[in-house]
Design goal:
single chain, alpha/beta, five-stranded mixed β-sheet, 24 helices, 37% helix, flat
Length: 791
């Protein structure tokens, strides 16, 4: 029958070139998750570390001084077949287990750090068996201050980590756990409560979180198997060492006497130990009084935490113990508050306090001389004032405590009062004074706190704004009518077809340059209706280069549908034709209706005219009548003057969009009836018509273009949003304190380097146990006018 053992195979190792890359590849091939070959692999890792320090070229041959060491290590790989490890930690002839113990050994040297764990089993007959369970070896760190005690302490940390792993993974009930090391210095670190420097303090705290000081014992270097893991050993020598079975004293039936003798060892720290913090005695002068405590005040973010911490500190100072403290009482909290106030006043008003204690007058340069200050029986500086004889005011209102202006306590007092109601600056300052405090320059401090309060920004924060942007190039270049067009839908209109009442909508096209409009009737707000109306418009007005629109679903659907049809074309000639005449669609930022002011203003004009036209009809109208009305409305709007410069001059003809579209100055003829049938223009006058149209173009540039360059609002620049800013998204259909929070992910700078829109990532409340979002966060694009900046 084959043996039930774990073994390593040397045949799997392929020869590699003697370069840095080849050494790393060979060492990495040694798969040993439990660390049975940790002493042997440590020697290979040490060689690799030495190569890294000498040269950083991966393909260069290793230095001559290390070639012999590497060849010896590779030669030892052939002895891996001789290392046989029983897979079962308990022998077949071993009786029922009466007690199971874990023994962890750790050590460090100038070659590396090692730790190993053994299972010690005792059966009902008193037989003892020990075997290696898990090991870990590490090379020395390449950075930082490296001393032997620090390395030994790091080895102890590795031992506690092995204990945590075995305690979690083993299905055997462990009765005891012991830790062994040969460093008396580290054992002294674990048995004392002195203040250490950061490196030692952090690792001692980590060890004490898992173990107790009573579990740590001393062992000589000759009996410490971890010494093999920290110094390294050839794999041919491992079976004959104590590596797999542990030291001989573990095989004894009773090791309690050894544990008792170990506890009698003196575990004292030397006075000159460099890892122990030195306590300096400082004699305080008048100007240094309470400076050490005062400098700690800015570490507290709220008045409640500050006072509670001082109350606990007073308990510790009285009882001289950290373990015998309890929840502070009201009296203790009040005394702690008085202590904080006195420390602050003595820092800022030392000269005034000294003068008042001596019965002298205050210096003329004192900032509180006008408050007539005095010292109460508690030693606190208060305002004397002129309302001493008042019977309606309380003592705190008549003689409030003086708080300096440039101190952290003033901010905490005002913030504590403000957080109770989150009201304005005047209310907060009045409540502070009613509470019995007079803060020097309190108005300025209160204004800053209210201005930077996140809760107040969420409740009453103003919307972001930015200076009105420059006019786009499409509105300034001379083009034929409707080359650059903006579109939008408006309505609804109710029409009657036979006995059915239907809804109809208007689709308005406006020219960016001539400001002319064109209106089409659409049956609904679907993609098909939009595409059909667009085709009718193109058939009448000709080709269009760019179309601007908002994020309406019918517009987005029409754009996607036309793009889809364009990509499916197979005829190259047809495809080339559409490439040359393809319309470019440009959409505005979502929810940014002000960015479509070009067509929004025209819709307002249409509505004002349309209301008058519709009022002439009594009863219901059909679709054909609605289309006629909308065309008449478009004609009326297109005949409006584009400027007001010549309205009072009867000799000058005002410029209108119709004049640019048709070249005719007269307005739209009246409905059928009496009309003049005389032909106004003949074919031979076409040159004159062209000349008049050119004059109109020039007149438009002079009269109209100058009027639209003036900004009506948003005339000043504001600070730009930045990536990482916390904002609140304006949602008009939700109450303000229900608006969603978001973080700025991307900002878009205009040609003037001002940010007018941004991409935001919406915050989510669905988080896992680690605080990470469960679902993918929503990403939106919004104008700055729809955002409220919080942080």
């Amino acid at each position: 029958m084959k043996e039930d053992v774990l073994k390593f195979t040397a045949k799997e190792f392929q020869p590699k070139p003697m370069t840095r890359r080849g050494v790393l590849s060979t060492v990495s091939q040694l798969y040993d998750p439990l660390g049975f070959l940790a002493p042997f692999s440590l020697k290979g890792k040490n060689i690799l570390q030495k190569i890294n320090k000498v040269d950083d070229d991966w393909n260069k041959e290793i230095p001559p001084g290390l070639i012999q060491l590497w060849k010896e290590w590779v030669k030892e790989l052939g002895n891996l077949d001789d290392v046989l490890i029983p897979r079962c930690i308990k022998p077949t002839d071993f009786g029922p287990t009466a007690q199971a113990e874990l023994h962890h050994f750790c050590d460090a040297s100038l070659s590396g750090i090692g730790a190993c764990s053994y299972m010690r089993l005792i059966d009902i007959n008193g037989n003892v068996h020990t075997w290696l369970l898990l090991t870990k070896s590490r090379v020395l760190p390449s950075k930082g201050i490296i001393t032997v005690p620090r390395l030994e302490l790091q080895g102890a940390v590795v031992a506690t980590q092995l204990h945590s792993i075995l305690k979690k993974e083993l299905n055997i009930k462990v009765n005891q756990a012991h830790f062994w090391m040969d460093s008396e210095i580290v054992l002294a670190y674990l048995s004392n409560e002195k203040k250490f420097h950061v490196y030692v303090a952090n690792r001692v705290r980590e060890i004490k979180m898992t173990t107790k000081a009573e579990q740590w014992h001393h062992v000589s270097t000759s009996e410490n198997p971890a010494d093999i893991a920290s110094r390294g050993l050839d794999c041919s020598k491992l079976p004959n060492s104590m590596w797999f079975t542990g030291p001989t004293f573990l095989m004894q039936r009773n090791i309690q006497s050894r544990l008792q003798n170990d506890r009698k060892l003196a575990k004292c720290i030397a006075d000159n130990d460099p890892e122990v913090k030195k306590i300096k005695e400082v004699k305080l002068t008048k100007t240094q009084y309470s400076t050490a405590i005062y400098d700690k005040l800015p570490k507290f973010s709220s008045l409640k935490r500050l006072i509670t911490s001082f109350a606990y500190l007073q308990q510790i100072a009285r009882k001289k113990s950290w373990s015998a403290i309890s929840t502070p009482t009201v009296t203790q909290l009040e005394y702690a508050k008085q202590l904080v106030i006195k420390i602050t006043q003595r820092k800022h008003f030392w000269t005034e306090l000294d003068a008042l204690h001596k019965g002298q007058t205050l210096p003329a340069t004192s900032s509180i001389i006008g408050l007539n200050p005095y010292i109460d029986k508690e030693g606190i500086l208060r305002i004397g004032g002129r309302a001493t004889k008042s019977t309606t005011l309380s003592f705190e209102e008549k003689h409030p405590i003086i708080v300096p202006k440039n101190c952290h306590l003033a901010k905490l007092l005002i913030r504590d009062v403000h957080n109770k109601a989150h009201l304005g600056m005047g209310y907060t300052l009045n409540m502070v004074r009613q509470s019995g405090y007079w803060v020097i320059s309190g108005t300025r401090i209160t204004k800053d706190i209210v201005k930077n309060c996140v809760v107040c920004k969420k409740l009453r924060g103003s919307f972001m704004q930015q200076r009105m942007g420059e006019l786009s190039e499409d509105r300034l270049q001379q083009t034929t009518p409707f080359t650059m067009t903006g579109i939008d839908c408006f309505g609804t209109f109710t029409v009657k077809e036979r006995r059915t009442m239907l809804k109809r909508y208007g689709l308005l096209f406006t020219c960016f340059y001539s400001r002319a409009i064109h209106i089409e009737v659409v049956d609904d707000l679907t993609t098909d209706a939009f595409i059909n109306a667009l085709r009718c418009f193109l058939a009448i007005r000709g080709s269009v280069k760019r179309i601007y629109c908002d994020h309406g679903t019918n517009f987005i659907g029409g754009i996607n549908e036309m793009n889809r049809q364009f990509t499916t074309m197979t005829n190259e000639e047809v495809k080339r034709y559409f490439i040359n005449r393809r319309i470019e669609f440009i959409t505005t930022t979502p929810t940014a209706s002000h960015q479509g002011g070009v067509w929004e203003r025209q819709i307002r004009t249409v509505r004002s005219v349309l209301n008058q036209a519709m009022s002439k009809y009594q009863g219901q109208i059909d679709t054909a009548s609605l289309r006629t009305i909308l065309f008449e409305v478009a004609s009326i709007v297109n005949h409006r003057p584009l400027s007001t410069m010549h309205l009072n001059n009867h000799e000058e003809v005002p410029l209108t969009p119709n004049a640019l579209l048709t070249g005719k100055v007269e307005s739209t003829p009246p409905p059928p009836g009496d009309f003049d049938s005389e032909e106004r223009y003949c074919k031979w006058r076409w040159k004159k018509v062209q000349a008049i149209a050119e004059d109109f173009w020039n007149c438009w540039k002079v009269e109209y273009l100058d009027n639209i360059t003036k900004r009506q609002k948003w005339t000043t620049s504001q600070s730009n949003l930045k990536v990482g800013d916390i904002v609140m998204i304006v949602e008009s259909d939700q109450p303000k304190n229900s608006w969603r929070l978001a973080v700025i992910e991307e900002v878009f700078h205009g040609q003037d380097d001002l940010v007018r829109k941004a991409t935001v990532k919406v915050a989510t409340k669905m988080l896992d146990s680690k605080g990470k979002p469960i679902e993918k966060s929503t990403v939106l694009q919004r104008p700055v006018q729809k955002l409220v900046k919080l942080l």
